[in-house]
Amino acid sequence: MATDTVSNFTTDHCAPTMTCRHCGNASGRADFCCEGCAAAHEAAGTINASNIYASLARPTGDETYQLELIVEGMHCASCVRLIENALAANDDVLSARVNMTTERLTFSWCGTPERGGVLAEQIIKLGYKLHDPGDNAAGDVAQNTERQLLKSIAVAGFAAGNLMLLSVGLWSSTGETMGFATRDFFHWISALIALPTVIYSGRPFFGSAYAALKERHTNMDVPISLAVILASLMSVFEAFRHGEYVYFDSAVMLLFFLLIGRYLDARAKGKARESASRLLSKLAGSASVITNGDVNRIPIKDLKAGMRLLVAAGENIPADGTILKGETDIDLSLISGETMPGHAGVGGATLAGTLNLTAPIEIAVTKASEQSLLSEIVRMMETAEQGAAKYIRLADRAASLYTPVVHILSAATFIGWLAWGMPWQVSLLNAVTVLIITCPCALGLAVPVVQVLASGKLLKGGILLKSGDALERIAGVDTIVFDKTGTLTVGRPRLEGGAYQPEDLRLAASMAVHSRHPLSVALAQRYDGDLIKLDVQEAPGKGLSAAYDGKNIKLGSRGWCGREGADDQDTAALELWLSVNGDSRAHFKFADALRPDAAEMIKALHDKNIDIHLLSGDRKVVANRIAEELGIAEVVAETSPLEKCDYINRLKQEGRTVLMVGDGLNDAPALAAANVSMSPSSAVDITQNTADIVFQGEQLMPVLDTMLLAQKSNSLVRQNFALAIAYNIFAIPLAVFGYVTPMIAAAAMSGSSLVVILNAFRLRMRSR
Amino acid sequence: MDILLYLIPIALTLGLIGLVAFLWTLKSGQYDDLDGAPHRILHDDEDDN
Question: What is the ipTM of this complex?
Answer without folding.
Answer: 0.86
